[in-house]
Amino acid sequence: MLSPLDMFAIGIGPSSSHTVGPMKAGLAFANRIIEAGYLEQVIKLKIELFGSLALTGEGHGTFLAVINGLAGEDPKTINPDTIFSRVEQIKLSKQLCLAKLKLIDFDYQQDLLIHKDKFLPQHANGLQFSAYDASNQLILTGEYFSIGGGFIVESDYFLAENCANQNDLLADSIPYPFTTAKELFDLCSLHNLTIAQLVMANEQIKFSYAQIRAQTLEIAEVMHSSIQRGIIAKGLLPGGLDVKRRANKLYEKLIKSD
Fold first, then answer.
1. CA distance 222 to 11
2. Measured between alpha carbons, how far is 32 from 28 in angstroms, rounded to an integer?
3. C-beta of residue 125 within 8 angstroms of C-beta of residue 145
4. Does pTM surpass 0.85?
5. Beta bridge partners of 45
6. How far is residue 75 from each of residues 10, 14, 39, 65, measured CA to CA in Å?
7. Which residues are paired to 112 by β-bridges?
């Protein structure tokens, strides 16, 4: 079952699966390099995007997102105004500051491979990372999949045994599991709970009431900030499709009519 806090996760736009997920994957691989003790050895990286990420990645900011992730940026905390300028600097210098810790060689044209005609068998949104040392020897690889909603998994997630174990664990831990609206309503009637009370009980398996409240208020604040940013910004939306921003003019029209 998805948590409401998962569904309303904070992240860079425009897409959870094509922007948030790839940035998380880049960050995960950068952290994996550090955890494996290879940071000093790595001098070069290669990124490969497959399937849907390759086909629609440019418009969804996938290419920008994955590079920002490798540079140590998190989709929850990144400043949206820096996502483009950081990649432009990387293109010009042909260097990337891996996990904000070490400059390595990175040629945007050569080291970011877009496989529009290839799909990995596990999922349509696949990414592969390769890290090399000074002798151009491969020292670490990582394969990730952006499965929707900003969630990422690695290849072994798709093994039937792993999926079954995860589902069993989830079913055992949640007090009021449901998969349809009818099941939700039936559980509320059976236990004399409101929807809010039932969902809160499920949430408290993972977090305290105070933590849930704090996360919920944080989401609300980010939503409010996004609206404020949107009604101020003018010009074109990023992404290269030349889509005009509309919120500013709509806001001005609304306040004129009181």
1. 10
2. 6
3. yes
4. no
5. 131
6. 7, 11, 22, 8
7. 47
Helix axes 51-60, 62-70, angle to 10 degrees: 90
Q: Of all helices (H) and strands (E), which one includes residue 151?
A: strand 151-154
Interior CA angle at 18 toward 115 and 71, to 5°? Answer: 85
Instruction: Return the SS3 of 8.
Output: coil
Query: Which CA distances in Å does 179 have to 173, 183, 186, 205?
Result: 15, 7, 12, 18
Report the chain's C-alpha Rg in angstroms. 21
Which residues are CB-contacts of 8 (< 8 A; sequence separation ≥ 6)? 219
Q: Which residue has the tokens 């798709």?
A: 158
Instruction: Assess contact for 72 and 99: CB atoms under 8 A.
Output: yes
Alpha helix ranges (H) inside the chain: 4-7, 21-35, 51-60, 62-70, 83-93, 108-111, 160-173, 181-191, 195-203, 209-232, 247-256
Please name which of 55, 215, 36, 25 lies closest in space to residue 124, comparing C-alpha atoms.
Answer: 55
Rounded mean pLDDT for each run of 10 residues along the chain, 258 residues in total? 83 90 97 96 96 91 96 93 93 96 95 94 94 96 93 85 54 86 97 96 94 94 91 83 90 88
Residue 17 DSSP symbol: I
Distance of CA 81 to the CA centre of its chain: 17
The DSSP H or E segment spanning 49 is strand 44-50
Here the tokens at position 237 are 């939306």
The strand pair at 44-50 and 112-115 is best described as: parallel
